[in-house]
UniProtKB/TrEMBL annotation:
Domain Poly(A) polymerase central per the UniProt entry, residue ranges: 221-364
Source species: Hibiscus sabdariffa (roselle)
Biased composition regions of type Polar residues, renumbered to the chain: 608-617
Record-given protein name: polynucleotide adenylyltransferase
The UniProt record lists the keyword Magnesium: yes
Compositional bias segments (type: Basic and acidic residues): 527-554
Cofactor(s) essential for the protein: Mg(2+); Mn(2+)
CDD domains hit by this protein: NT_PAP_TUTase
Length: 701
């Protein structure tokens, strides 16, 4: 029989449903421990000391500048309304609205950062003439406006300038209203009625920023974590959308997704989980904050319907309609670099959780110029600073294409690492800057000895794309070099040459401390391959050694040794010994511009050493000065390590389930490799630029 006590027992407690943020349930709803809270305070203190927060004075100045821009655009719309014959009442009611997006709207901007701004105007004020000509002229006449640069042919048309020293990126969107309401809700889908694609893209920035702030569980924790990850990405050289890495909105979406998966976590936990999750993320599965919606007929990201979407390597989908892939610029090479950096960050965060490292270790700068043996150097020159600003923007936007071309033409065997930072030689008075790309052979490739990379067609195709610049002026030129690490110009981070330890590199990058292979292949005019042997101190090969040897270029003379000024012709199919002398610096700075150099680069020459070094130590080479001497750290209690291991196992169990392909979007197909351009491959004139010692003067006109 059942006792009366059993009958009167209270029913079992039903657990409250877990709040779901995003397209899946959270991985963990656990809150922070005291140690997590302490680490978050230390992290926030570090970010303040790093100068990521602006002063109250600068914040007030930004608000003042935005107010003055609002006044300017309102008067501009009223002026156009009057000129087009509208009534006095229409002129009085005419209005334009200013919205912000990007880092300023998200609350993660810092000192000196720009303000992404959108001007919304009525239907009769257009972008092509009214914005880029009339408003441009109004701004040009104001003393507060400097460095005014319109970019009407950009994917998102923009006008860049500084207003009282504050950088402004101003976009324009004309909506289907005769009068723009003062309380316009830009998140409402009705603003997209009867507008064109450029207008949709212009509106998308503000709409995405608003949605992000609505979809994260804790805005304050999101902002702190995003500040941290943006600083980390800049220090590690992976913050640049234009060169194929990730920009501000991409990092914001990645961080927002982590906030959804760990809704009760504090910033220190979110940073650690960020690296753990994305180290194991199965790309090209998309990162999404919400389900993709369809509505007004605009194209949305859907690999089932759009073949181009299937080629995206790292889809990060915007949450506002129409949902787009914000990271379509990512290539296989840049994805590889970012995954290596995620692994680096994960390793450091594990040590931080075990009190074996400090936060400063996470933000150690990436030693790009110690990571590779071979580099491409792209020098950009112009007549003055204004021309350089426009010319550099155009060339920089095309550097990603050079990476894709090299990957395509070498079938992915030669990998490029474009570095997003620009460099300037302060000793030169001319307007110029330089960008660099690291070159390495693809890991694990089985390649025959002496087989050569040929990127002549890739470089020539890149030149043709650069020549399409419609605002070209005399003096705008571009030079492409191949340089070795020891030949890098002195103005690139001199401190890297003083560092004797390669402590912050990923495992395969540590191997670049090793010397090159014994053989360096080059080609004489007879086509015979010669080898430079390290153990050959004289004898028959001494002349060959002299020909192959290349002197470091003169830092002050762009036309000095190491530079080949090459004019292509149908008869330029080989080079003599004297040509090789000139190419390698023996003829000095006055080498003939008509000389031609055919020098090939073997697989042994690029990336041969990348197969070694991965077994140096059990920590994968992630040590750094702040934590490399682990023996000096205090001994940890055993329960700390046990707790860490248990938490990591629980995390992985939940993470693997979360990382399965998202059924809401459908099966995301794997990325497809590009094909070689047959037209370029058949053109004999463009097959004339080798990577080894190659620097080509590209004549713009």
């Amino acid at each position: 029989m059942v006792s009366s006590e059993g009958l009167c027992c209270s029913p079992p407690t039903i657990a409250a449903p877990v709040t779901q943020y995003g397209v899946t349930k959270p991985i963990s709803v656990a809150g922070p421990t005291e140690a997590d809270i302490l680490r978050s305070r230390v992290l926030e203190r570090f970010l303040v000391e790093a100068g990521l927060y602006e002063s109250k004075e600068e914040a007030s100045k930004r608000e003042e500048v935005l107010g003055r821009i609002q006044e300017i655009v309102t008067n501009w719309v009223k002026q156009l309304t009057r000129l087009r014959g509208y009534t006095d009442q229409m002129v009085e009611d005419a209005n334009a609205a200013i919205f912000t997006f990007g880092s300023y709207r998200l609350g993660v901007h810092g000192p000196g950062s720009d303000i992404d701004t959108l001007c919304v105007g009525p239907s009769y004020v257009n972008r092509e003439e009214d914005f880029f000509f009339v408003l441009h002229n109004i701004l040009a006449e104001r003393e507060e406006v400097t460095e005014l640069q319109p970019v009407p042919d950009a994917h998102v048309p923009v006008m860049k300038f500084k207003f009282s020293g504050i950088p402004i990126d101003l976009l324009y969107a004309s909506i289907s209203h005769l009068v723009v309401p003062h309380d316009l809700d830009i998140s409402d889908m009705s603003v997209l009625n009867n507008v064109d694609e450029p207008t949709v893209r212009s509106l998308n920035g503000c709409r995405v920023a608003d949605q992000i702030l609505k979809l994260v569980p804790n805005v304050e924790h999101f902002c702190t974590t995003l500040r941290c990850l943006k600083l980390w990405a800049k220090r590690r050289g992976v913050y640049s959308n234009v060169t194929g890495f990730l920009g501000g909105v991409n990092w914001a979406l990645l961080v927002a997704r982590i906030c959804q998966l760990y809704p009760n976590a504090v910033p220190s936990m979110l940073v650690s989980r960020f690296f753990r999750v994305y180290t194991q993320w199965r790309w090209p599965n998309p990162v999404m904050l919400c389900a993709i919606e369809d509505g007004l007929g605009f194209s949305v990201w859907d690999p089932r319907k759009n073949p181009r979407d299937r080629t995206h390597h790292m889809p990060i989908i915007t949450p506002a309609y129409p949902c787009m892939n914000s990271s379509y610029n990512v290539s296989t090479s840049t994805l590889r670099v970012m995954m290596e950096q995620f692994q680096y960050g994960n390793s450091i965060c594990e040590k931080i959780e075990l009190n074996r490292a400090k936060w400063s270790a996470l933000f150690e700068p990436y030693l790009f110029f110690q990571s590779y043996t071979n580099y491409l150097q792209v020098d950009i020159l112009a007549a003055d600073a204004d021309d350089l600003r426009a010319w550099k923007g155009w060339v920089e936007s095309r550097l990603r294409q050079l990476t894709l071309m090299i990957e395509r033409d070498t079938y992915g065997k030669l990998q490029c690492h474009p570095y997003p930072q620009e460099y300037v030689d302060a000793s030169k008075p001319s307007a110029h800057c330089a960008f660099f790309m690291g070159l390495q052979r693809k890991q694990g490739e089985i390649i025959q000895e002496g087989q050569q990379f040929d990127i002549r067609g890739s470089v020539d195709e890149f030149r043709h794309s650069i020549n399409m610049y419609m605002f070209w002026k005399p003096g705008m030129e571009i030079y492409v070099y191949h340089v070795r690490r020891k030949q890098l110009p002195a103005y690139v981070h001199p401190d890297v040459y003083k560092c004797s330890r390669n402590l912050w590199l990923t495992p395969h990058q540590q191997s670049y401390k090793l010397p090159c292979n014994n053989g360096v292949a080059y080609q004489t005019d007879s086509g015979e391959k010669c080898l430079k042997r390290k153990n050959d101190s004289g004898g028959e090969n001494s002349e060959q050694r002299r020909l192959v040897k290349q002197r470091s270029p003169d830092r002050n003379q762009p036309g000095s040794s190491g530079i080949i000024s090459c004019k292509l012709s149908s008869t330029s199919t080989s080079c003599s010994t004297s040509d090789l002398d000139e190419m390698n610096g023996f003829a000095g700075a006055n080498a003939s511009s008509n000389s031609c150099g055919i020098v090939s680069c073997s697989h042994e020459d690029i990336g041969n050493e990348s197969t070694a070094g991965s077994s140096e130590g059990s920590n994968g080479g992630y040590d750094n000065p702040s934590c490399s001497q682990s023996d000096s750290c205090d001994d940890l209690n055993s329960y700390v390590e046990d707790e860490h291991a248990n938490r990591k196992k629980a995390f992985q169990d939940g993470l693997l389930k979360e990382l399965e392909p998202n059924t809401m979007v459908g099966a995301v197909l794997k990325s497809m490799n590009g094909v070689v351009d047959a037209e370029s491959a058949q053109n004999p004139l463009i097959r004339h630029v080798f990577v080894e010692f190659g620097i080509i003067k590209r004549e713009m006109r």
